[in-house]
Design a protein that fits this description.
Length: 398
Amino acid sequence: MGILDGITVLDCSIAMAGPFAAQRLGDLGADVIKIEPLAGEWQRHAPAGGITGNKINVSFLSLNRNKRSLAVDLKSEGGKEVLRKLVETADVFIQNYRPGVAARLGVDYDSLAAINPRLIYVSMSGYGEDGPSAMRPGQDLLLQAMSGAMLSAGRAGEPPTPAGQYLVDAITAYTAFEGALAALFHRERSGEGQKVEVNMLDAITTIQMQELSVFTVGQKPQARSAEPHAHVYIRSPYGVFGTNDGKFIALAMPNFPGLARALDEPRLAGLDEMSAGWEDRDATFALVRDAIAKFSQPDALARLEAEGIWVGPVYGYADLVADPQIAHNGTFIEYDHPTEGRVKTPGFPIRFSKSPSELRRGAPLTGQHTAEVLAAAGYDAARIEALITQGAVGRGEP
């Protein structure tokens, strides 16, 4: 049994952050019911990388394992009736509608808490439920830009480089996951449900605890260098450096004497950490860059590691998937999906000795579990057929 076995989650979210948070709850054993429109959730029709799959694209496949799909029209009276019925016995409700939409649909916290006071209601938004930016689009890249994080790396005067992953979505998902678990624990102690609000702007801002404190408390300005230094608040050399075989290494906070020996560059030996690392950051970076460029990646790594310097290879995804530590950790899981074939995908990041996460089902087809979910909620076969005929719910493929 998973840790959350017996917990029912109603997932009314779309795109990445909400579905990812709900998937994590499902991985821990919760029964996650994905409530989606009759035509399917938005992410079913927006494939990342253009990888459409057979019937389920990779984007949706990756964010919706361990869920059952209930296709329902929440704008219809029959659909609203179905949702209210499910809320009666649900434990967690997750939505990431734009501000005001939940109230128009009648699925705001006050409405659902009146049905089930023990409900944990997770409301996710881009910038907060109200305020001057509340109605702005909550999209990952836009939040990366607004957070200030992009201007902590790269060359001065050049456009910042965004993160190579959907960083804000992922951080927001984990924040919501954490909030849901904490609220469930509170309910175990008090018996009461509550509303949990999470927004993308606060999530990406608060993980910059050190950087923003250096700015607000230490009053050190955020100033990029002429060289592509990896972080404005860490001394040089710190960043990614090219080798003579067309590859790259990452180098972090080395001691100068060891660096000089490893790279056969005596000019590094006598440098002062404070003056060279901070005040003359660009010249130091350039000196190290030119020295590393004389070696191949394996040679540079071996030389630097022999001196105890923090260094590592820059991987692509092919390198990552093939890495022995990844294999040792069992980071990826593989399973057979009825429509998408053999699936290899990142698995479960938390290991529990007595109640491990597990794969119980792959991502569902739209409405695949409509009849199953409604029967479990107390609807008889005749009423289910009537709702399907009315178009309030959708009967998906088995």
